[in-house]
Amino acid sequence: EMENLLDAEIIEEDKGELKVLGVFRTEKTSIIAGGEVLTGDLKPGYLARVVRNKTYLGEVEVTSVQKEKIDVKELIAGETGGLALKTANKIDLEIGDRLKFFTRETKKRTL
Q1: What's the rounded Cα separation, in Å, for the pair 4 and 80?
Q2: Residue 76 CB: number of other CB atoms within 10 A?
Q3: How far is it, in rounded angstroms, from Cα 62 to Cα 83?
Q4: Which residues contact 70 (CB under 8 A, 6 or more apart)?
Q5: How far apart are CA 70 and CA 50, in angstroms?
Q6: Per-residue pLDDT averaged across 61-73, rounded?
Q7: Environment class of residue 73 by beta-carbon count within 10 Å: exposed (0-12), middle (13-18) or buried (19+)?
Q8: C-alpha to C-alpha distances, 109 to 5, 9, 13, 89, 103, nearest whole angstrom
């Protein structure tokens, strides 16, 4: 009974960082961009914080990842590729912006 009153615990895990090298299309709820993975890895389903000069611009979700125009399951540090992002609000991504990838898991608290 009491467990239902507890807020779920949100666990975030950092996954990596990408430097934006090109922005190909920006729409209200989606962005197609390209970049270089600086650290960690990048996979569809990851979330990312968009950062420009240490300023937080918003959060996006990675919907697909491409390498040499072929859909792939992941990109790793040192690789460049393309990515499709889903946004809640329009974000004008620019070359040089950083995407800091993470996963977010909601865990039900137990007593």
Answers
A1: 45
A2: 13
A3: 7
A4: none
A5: 24
A6: 96
A7: exposed
A8: 9, 6, 18, 31, 18
- The answer for residues whose C-beta is within 8 angstroms of residue 55's C-beta and 6 or more apart is none
Alpha-carbon span 29 to 94, nearest angstrom: 16
Task: Please give the full DSSP string across the chain, using - where no structure is assigned.
Answer: -GGGGSPPEEEEEEEEEEEEEEEEEE-SSEEEEEEEEEEEEE-TT-EEEEEETTEEEEEEEEEEEEETTEE-S-EETT-EEEEEEEESS-----TT-EEEEEEEEEE----
pLDDT digit string, tens, across residues 14-64:
999 999 999 999 999 999 999 999 999 999 999 999 999 999 999 999 999
- What is this structure's pTM? 0.89
Beta-bridge mates of residue 81: 35
CB 102 within 8 A of CB 4: no
